[in-house]
Amino acid sequence: MKLLTNxxxxxxxxxxxxxxxxxxxxKGKEGWFLIDCGTPEGYEQIKENVKKTGVDPAExxxxxxxxxxxxxxxxxxxxKQEFGCLLYLHELDREQxxxxxxxxxxxxxxxxxxxxxxxxxxxxxxGDTWEGDGFTVEAMYTPGHTMGSVSFDVTAGEYRLLIAGDxxxxxxxEKIGSNxxxxxxxxxxxxxxxxxxxxxxxxxxxxxxxxxxxxKEAKMAFANYYNPWFKTFYETYRY
Length: 239
What we know:
Layout: E1 2-4, E2 7-11, E3 23-28, E4 31-35, H1 43-52, E5 60-64, H2 70-73, H3 76-83, E6 86-89, H4 94-99, H5 107-111, E7 122-123, E8 129-131, E9 136-141, E10 150-155, E11 160-163, H6 180-191, E12 197-199, H7 211-221
Parallel strand pairs: 4-5, 5-6, 6-7, 11-12
Antiparallel strand pairs: 1-2, 2-3, 3-4, 8-9, 9-10, 10-11
Helix pairs in contact: 6-7
């Protein structure tokens, strides 16, 4: 689904497998790239959705991962094998992906499966930028959900968009290295900026308007009351 000029959502809720986080296809100055790439379960459908935009998946040069979790970059090894895509992550989430640590990547905890070890080709750091066709993408270090989480600040002449990954509405668990203090700092950092729209890691294809007020309210709600009954995605719950 087209979100903005040269920016599409090609994976995630209502689009592909229910394990998949949101996957974004973006046209760069030197070729197409993805922000996150979903799971092996959704891989074939994500490829089909890329084709529906008129883009050959072979034109995708690299993947920018918001963090090293199965639902976000679990299919990276398939993109690398078939198309030679490069994978970029923050340094602090690199080891779990390269080692296929199925607890740290949440594959075993939430999805009842395992992560395939996948080489990370380069790292993402605060302030890194990529030139899109009509926009610029800037990395923001936004730890908390994981200590290697990043978000992406997308700016064009007429708008500013936050692609938040799981920095907004992500789950918290010590098993995946979540850190409450870092997350509070991240929310302060995000709400200090202005955004026209935002989107996050587990959302139907849409841009959420009134972003500044909504993000501030998300910060107000953070950690008010932890929910220990977080349902796993690979099991069916009757109630």
